[in-house]
């Protein structure tokens, strides 16, 4: 892969500014993390809307970038060594952008690992637990008779808040 045209996702979401980081996303809790990061560090990017209403995340073009069919995902044509890099999973995208821009990730090893520790906590704790509360409280799961799954995720989310 050398140019944006080599990426099948470009057929559905063509890049107007391929020299910018290409962001494929939607303003959901995981999506906005990367948008906020890009705004914070000031790297130029081109956003592409992946609509859940039309199940864009299930399209072959999107799956070519993320086989797990979830936003956000990025392509940076000017990745490490000047080569294109495609990434999915918000946590690793945040780390990549922090390293690339030299911002928000300390050089000091102990502080760097402390920062990454909170990224991991967000990815493994906050994100999935709060997401499950949303499902069981607001979406399809709210009609389930058995409230034990909801209560379990509410309790775990409350515990995460304390941390
Ligand atoms: N661990 C992933 C989770 C991504 C995720 O769950 N994305 C949701 C939106 S917040 C999604 O794309 N859902 C679409 C689907 O499941 O079909 C990350 O942090 O990037």
Task: Please describe what this structure looks like.
The chain has 6 helices and 4 strands, in the order αβαβαββααα. With 163 residues, it is an alpha+beta fold. It folds into 2 domains: 4-101, Glutaredoxin (3-Layer(aba) Sandwich); 109-162, Glutathione S-transferase Yfyf (Class Pi), Chain A, domain 2 (Up-down Bundle), CATH 1.20.1050.10. It has a 4-stranded mixed sheet with strand order 2-1-3-4, covered by helices on one side. A hairpin with an 8-residue loop joins β3 and β4. α2 (29-41) runs parallel beside α4 and α5 packs antiparallel against α6 (148-162). The protein is flat and about 50 Å long. The relative contact order is 0.12. The model has no long low-confidence stretch (mean pLDDT 97). Residues 28-31, 57, 69-72, 89-91, 123, 127 line the site of glutathione (GSH).
């Amino acid at each position: 892969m050398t140019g944006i045209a080599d990426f099948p996702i470009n057929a559905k979401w063509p890049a107007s500014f391929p020299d910018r980081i290409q962001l494929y996303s939607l303003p959901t809790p995981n999506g906005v993390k990367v948008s906020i990061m890009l705004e914070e560090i000031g790297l130029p990017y081109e956003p592409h809307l992946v609509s859940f209403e039309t199940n864009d995340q299930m399209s072959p073009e999107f799956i070519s970038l993320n086989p797990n069919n979830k936003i956000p995902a990025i392509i940076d044509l000017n990745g490490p060594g000047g080569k294109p890099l495609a990434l999915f999973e918000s946590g690793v995208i945040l780390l990549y952008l922090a390293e690339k821009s030299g911002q928000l990730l300390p050089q000091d090893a102990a502080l760097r690992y402390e920062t990454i520790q909170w990224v991991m906590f967000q990815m493994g704790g906050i994100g999935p637990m709060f997401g499950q509360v949303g499902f069981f409280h607001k979406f399809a799961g709210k009609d389930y008779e058995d409230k034990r799954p909801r209560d379990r995720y509410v309790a775990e989310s409350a515990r995460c808040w304390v941390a």
